[in-house]
Specification:
This protein is an all-alpha fold. The protein is 70% helix and 0% strand.
Length: 432
């Protein structure tokens, strides 16, 4: 690929940031506060999530540098284990990994904009998805400008929000800050583990730049830089945003709600300011939708090139943009919007993404020391080991306490297995 059609580490980092900061951080605290209320416990959840994301980013930096080209997990699993794993992770990415987060972001936009006493329903969410898909369909240059513009809004909004939230004194409504020793009991609760599934979803995106390694200049240098800078920035931002929400709203105002930042913002500077914050949360979610459609379409294209059932999705337009794949994700996201509640979609998405992220991370154990480009010491193996141990912990408790959502997710995996059999049985490659 010509370097004129490649992106630098800043755009790659912008994709990481925009894919990570979005739906999760502005919706999940309410779910956590239903069971976990100690501030130390909440912070620990987000610190663990940040460490896992960073360790995962280290692993993906090695994998992305070794397995050059677009594709991410598809390439790692197909080349390391068996083509069936590559097929499944691509199927999951098509349905859950990139389409479900687009649906969740669009639903969250509708929820936050509903503060204006007008119901922004599923039709609005669907329209936003297709408008963003159209904006990404012209050229890589246009896509970069569109994406970077809304990512700039996202980052600027987060920084201003943090400055205001930390600087302003607490409101008369009270706060949710609790610095007692009860955290020692809370971290032993099953609810702590299930809360981690919300947190790990909120960090989903730390691996996004690795999917488009083929579009990054000097990938061995710029991919690790983009992954690490993006992940560290997001971790610090998440801790501060959670502190702001806890500082400016009591537990009973936040627990069980999705638009938690809007609730806190109204307490900070009044109803008018709360509505302004809601608008900016909605605008920054455009960058989330853009990031998932951009990256997801590249993964789907790499997948489609090697599997007959999906071959039509591999087609580029004249500018080299996988337009069919972009709109396939947009259509699937629109269908997902109609299939379940926000929390239900959230849980089965987070559960399956954690499962397949764990499979992908495990492939680094097959890289020889001489094949690693970044971390030469064997201390490197601490990163995947810690990631996988926490993943088992999270997956186990999610399956036990959210069996319906977990089974929905596993059902989608099984359907992918059926499609794999059909693809291989009825679309056999001609004998050479």
């Amino acid at each position: 690929m010509s370097t004129t059609h490649q992106i630098g580490w800043k755009t790659a980092a912008a994709i990481v940031v925009s894919n990570m900061i979005g739906t999760g951080i502005f919706t999940t605290l309410g779910f956590q506060l239903s069971d976990i209320t100690n501030t130390y416990s909440i912070f620990l959840l987000w610190i663990i999530g940040g460490i896992l994301a960073l360790f995962g980013a280290f692993c993906y930096a090695e994998l992305g540098s070794y397995f050059k080209g677009n594709g991410g997990d598809y390439i790692y699993l197909k080349e390391t284990y068996h083509p069936i794993f590559g097929y499944l992770v691509s199927w999951i990415s098509l349905i859950i990994g990139f389409s479900a987060p687009v649906a969740l972001a669009a639903l969250a936009m509708s929820k936050y904009l509903s503060a204006f006493n007008y119901t922004f329903g599923n039709g609005f969410a669907t329209a936003v998805i297709f408008i963003v898909a159209a904006a990404l369909s012209f050229s890589l240059k246009t896509s970069s400008r569109f994406h970077n513009f809304f990512t700039f809004i996202k980052i600027a909004f987060i920084i201003v929000l943090i400055i205001l939230g930390v600087g302003l004194s607490g409101s008369d409504a009270g706060n949710s800050l609790e610095f007692s020793s009860s955290w020692q009991d809370e971290i032993m609760l099953p609810a702590f583990a299930t809360s981690l599934v919300f947190v790990t979803y909120s960090y989903t995106g730390w691996n996004s730049a690795s999917y488009i390694a083929g579009e990054i200049k000097d990938v061995q240098k710029n991919l690790p830089k983009a992954l690490i800078v993006g992940t560290v920035f997001v971790t610090v931002s998440y801790l501060l945003v959670n502190f702001i929400m806890l500082k400016h709203a009591p537990v009973n105002q936040l627990a069980g709600k999705e638009d938690v930042m809007g609730e806190a913002a109204r307490n900070m500077l009044g109803v008018g300011f709360g509505k302004i914050v809601n608008i900016f949360i909605a605008l920054q979610l455009i960058a989330t939708i853009s990031g998932y459609l951009w990256v997801g379409s590249r993964l789907t294209q790499a997948f489609a090139k090697e599997n007959h059932l999906w071959r039509p999705l591999a087609v580029n337009n004249k500018k080299g943009i996988p337009v069919r794949a972009i709109f396939a994700h947009a259509m699937i996201a629109s269908v997902i919007i109609l299939t379940g509640s926000f929390k239900e979609i959230f849980v089965y998405t987070a559960f399956i993404l954690q499962l397949f992220a764990s499979l992908s991370i495990s492939t680094v154990f097959f890289l020889k020391k001489s094949q690693r480009k970044i971390f030469k010491s064997n201390i490197f193996y601490i990163f995947p080991a810690v990631f996988l141990l926490f993943s088992i912990y999270i997956l186990y408790f999610t399956l036990i306490h959210n069996p319906k959502e977990s089974i929905i997710g596993l059902g989608i995996v099984v359907f992918g297995l059926i499609l794999y059999v059909i693809d291989r049985k009825f679309f056999k490659k001609p004998a050479e």
